[in-house]
Amino acid sequence: MHKIAKAPPKAQEKQLLIVKLVVVALYGVGIIGMSIPEYRPLFQSLTPAQLLITLGLVLFFHRGWTDSFPIVAALAFWIGFGSELIGIHTGYLYGDYVYGDTLGPKLWDVPLVIGVNWFILVYLTGAVFSKSISNDYYAALMGAVAMTAFDYIMEPVAMAVDMWYWKFDIIPIENYLGWFGVSFLIHLIYRKANFEKANPLAAFLLIVMVLFFSILNFTLKL
């Protein structure tokens, strides 16, 4: 396979710094916009674009362009999306919920970008544990735990900004169990695939995303 030429180390550091500043600006402005009721509808409509920009930034620093990577990316998208289809139409896996309009165009009542969201979260949490944990099953377990914790932080915000709604506004325990199970499956596929998993932007971006939802949990209640 043709190898992508790498920029010199100093150029890479400069690129990384610039992108980190872009990430802070992107999510910082999002926090402000979502926190001001007058501007919230506008920023809600920009959510799909924010996810796609995040995806682009992640892939910009990805170095494991082997034949298996696009397969894993596609599986993460479609397993995540497929699980949401099951959840929406049967109530299994996650409980009874429906999607609002914030996440954009839907296919069979499920926003298409939800598959992108699954891929991004698996990629980021997987990259964080890629070097520190050698055992694939333990890494998949920790990745699933991290994603379930992230979902716990995200859920109240998602309901407040019209991403999705739960029956009786109660988040059922099966939601977190379902998230853990599906996350573990995708993480295991991710770990078993042969491609470079370290990404210099991953940990920073994951922290920013956690802060984004954590802060909104507070500001949206004011």
Automatic annotation (TrEMBL):
It comes from Algoriphagus halophilus. It comes from the Bacteria. Keywords: Membrane, Transmembrane, Transmembrane helix. InterPro entries: CruF-like. The chain crosses the membrane at residues 16-36, 42-62, 69-92, 112-130, 137-153, 173-190, 202-220. This is Putative membrane protein.
